[in-house]
Structures are given as C-alpha cells and as structure tokens.
Specification:
The chain contains twelve helices and nine strands. It is α/β, with parallel strands linked by helices. The model has no long low-confidence stretch (mean pLDDT about 90).
C-alpha cells in the first residue's frame, strides 16, 4: 500500500528513498529495519507501532529489499546503516549543516571510545560532544545529553531496545534533531569486528560475513530467513 510517500511491506511503512535523498531529508527518529526486525515486528505489536511512528523508516536489509521487489514493492535501494553513519558524519562537518554535533551512546566503554576515535580520524572536523557506554543509568545519561546538547544521537543498544528507548525518551532531549538506532555498527566502526570485504558489502552479504565470524548468530539468521519466507508465502496466498 502506498500512502503519503510510504511503501508498506508486511505491515511496516517504509520511506522509499535513495541514500542521497535520505541524507537530504532525514530528521527526528529514524529506524533502519532489516529482515529480522520485520519478523520481530509481526509478533511484537508495540515494536511495530514504534517502527511505524518513526519519522523515517529506511530499508537496511538486502534480503528484505529483494523480497519487496518479488511481491511488487519496488524500493529504490538499500540504505546500509554504517554507510549512513559515515555519510551523516561527513555532512555534519559542513559549517552550514543543520546537524553538526554528535553524541554516541551504546556498547562498552572501550568500544564507544574507539568508535569516537576512529570517526575523528576519518572525519577530522567532526564535532563529537559525547561518547557514553550503554551500561550505566540511562536516566543520568539523558541529563548528560542535555548538558552537551547534541544535534545527532546514535544509539547502539541492539534491536528492539534501542528503538524503544529512543521512542520513549527523545522528547526528553530537546536538542536532538536526528536520532538513529544503529545496532552493532559501533563494533565495526571501532574495529572490534572486521567489516566484510568490499565485494560482499556491494552485493549485500555482510550478514553472511558476520555469521562466519560469529557462528552463534545462526539461530537469528534462521528465524529471520524462515520468518521472511513465511511472510512472503502468506502475501502470495492473499493475492489469489
């Protein structure tokens, strides 16, 4: 169903944007669903409501993108979360940008500090005003955030905790103009986990690379693939 610029896929309403369009338009609460998130949203009505209440919902998963095309929902492309972070950071260096200061939240103290350091190395003019680990009193973290007043808040708590936390707390942080849940992105940016080779990134197989590095993720992959296949099958039956 297409409505007000949204493309609905399995009950989740996506903004059909390219990376360039997303960089120009995104603001407020941004979510980046992939297959596992879509499957989870079918069982967790609160989570689905949160995804659909976000200001922008962008397709991050290659598998989800391909399934969407198969059922006749033609999205413009896949928005890779790490690349979106890099492009957003790069754009924030422009003195004319409306989003300039950034706060990182999530992961261990070591990971979030290394993420900060590597982002500064990559983008020398970036303004990171805070790097807070995710293992502390989050009410106190909100006070810290309001003390430094970032424009951009990147939250790496994992799904669905990060989306639920942003949804419930964004209004308490008036300076934040752009808030994104970024999952395991800090692990990659910090260097704790090596990113997939470029050719795997280009063809959307970073999930396979991560599975090879972390075989314990097989259950999550199985649930995601199985769940997405079942949703696709149900969609086909409903069209008959």
């Amino acid at each position: 169903m297409e409505k007000r610029g949204k493309t609905e896929i399995f009950g989740i309403k996506f903004d059909n944007l390219t990376m360039e369009e997303a960089l120009e338009k995104i603001k407020g609460f941004v979510v980046l669903p992939y297959s596992e998130i879509i499957v989870r949203g079918q069982k967790d009505e609160e989570f689905k409501k949160i995804l659909n209440s976000a200001d922008f919902c962008l397709c991050e998963g290659r598998g989800l993108y391909l399934v969407a095309r198969f059922i006749g929902k033609r999205l413009k492309g896949v928005i890779n979360g790490i690349e979106l972070i890099y492009r957003t950071c790069d754009k924030s260096q422009n003195p004319n940008s409306k989003f300039q200061t950034i706060l990182l939240l999530g992961g261990t103290e070591n990971v979030v500090e290394k993420t900060k350091g590597n982002l500064i190395k990559k983008f020398p003019n970036i303004k990171i005003v805070g790097a807070e680990n995710g293992y502390q009193d989050l009410e106190k973290v909100i006070k810290k955030i309001n003390g430094v007043k970032p424009d951009i808040l990147l939250v790496a708590f994992g799904t669905p905790k990060q989306e639920k936390w942003i949804y419930n707390n964004l209004s308490k942080m008036p300076s934040v103009k752009l808030a994104m849940g970024v999952g395991g992105a800090f692990d990659f940016i910090s260097g704790r986990i090596k990113r997939a080779p470029k050719f795997m990134q280009k063809i959307g197989l970073e999930w396979l690379w991560r599975l090879l590095l972390q075989p314990k993720r097989i259950k999550r992959v199985f649930i995601s693939v199985g769940g997405l296949t079942w949703l696709t099958f149900k969609n086909m039956l409903s069209l008959k």
